[in-house]
Amino acid sequence: MNRASQLSALADHDPENPILLCDLLDELLSAGRVDEAAKHIVEALPSMSELPAVRFREARCALLRGDTKRAIQVLQSLVSNMKDIPSGVFHDLAYAQLVEGRAEEALKTLERAKDGQGDPVAMALLKARILHQQQQMQAALEVLAPVQSGARLSEVQGVRALLWLDLGDNARAAAEAEQALKANPDQHEAALVRGTLALWSMQLQESSEVFECLLERHPESGRAWLGMGQVRMLGGDIADARALLERASLQMPGHIGTWHALAWCQLMQGDLAGAKHSFDKAFALDRTFGETHGGFALVHALRGERKEAEESIKRATRLDPQGRSARYAQSVLLLDEGQVEEARGVIDSIIARTPGAAMVPADFIFRLRELVRPKG
């Protein structure tokens, strides 16, 4: 008889013992047997199921089922009615709020937890993930800096790796990721970093394998969908890439890079309206991001809207003098003037300055212009 079966028998024999019931629920949840745990809560005596400790585990069941709204409802009820609120309640409530896209609210929830209570590493990891979503990368790294050992070190290293990646320090990102994967080959964030760096190095087969494995284990991983979509796009399977990137945008509607990747995929299909819509989504997230204005410029240029393109190019280069999309837009305007070699030179200079997977050659831009330009 395994431990869960033993606890179940004991709880059935003593149905008014909350310690036994909670131990059983914890055992089932740790084993991933969420439906069984929920069934025990439903079948428990009302005097048991209404206890704060049991309701906390009810919220855990909801979280593990993906029902964040129900989890928030239960946890907020506990926060409103309990005197001494365990830090785990604040942790789970903040996590559910983060999943719902309410990062600022999640951070405020975490701040209500008393120092020294609960698992400090779990609290640090969640706070770092919230700060990451808020684009506060350095602050997130500072939160994780004290963690140098322990059972969850590989998870901390994986999160740090992803933070370094998003800060543009690929060497540190790779080093942290490989340390994490050495200890735990399934570590989510570290695998994302490995797959993304392989993608950027045009090692498409390796990158594809990493993202495929990730999606098998983490089908909710927006960044894995994004990475797989980019792999497919670079491999020339544009229709499949678009479907994957659309899935990524549903998982991560607040991630600007996803909307940009989708926009470029749509451009590759000649779908200017779709690309404009995706750039609009990115613009709604951050009106000061130069590449978004460069995207608008490229769409205008491809439509033959020279005045609007020039205005968008000015805004884009003011916000990001090294931005690529504005330069692509400039190349289209040069083509309109018949300056083919000058247009090719603009694109070649982009590729020479920032080589990698994100670059598109001049011939593609030339073909795209012919594809989408209204015939007259």
TrEMBL record:
This is Tetratricopeptide repeat protein. The lineage of its organism: Bacteria, Pseudomonadati, Pseudomonadota, Gammaproteobacteria, Lysobacterales. Gene3D superfamilies: Tetratricopeptide repeat domain. It comes from Dyella jejuensis. InterPro entries: ARM_TT21_2nd, TPR-like_helical_dom_sf, TPR_rpt. Residues 34-247 form the Tetratricopeptide repeat protein 21A/21B second ARM domain. Signal peptide: none annotated. SUPFAM superfamilies: HCP-like, TPR-like.
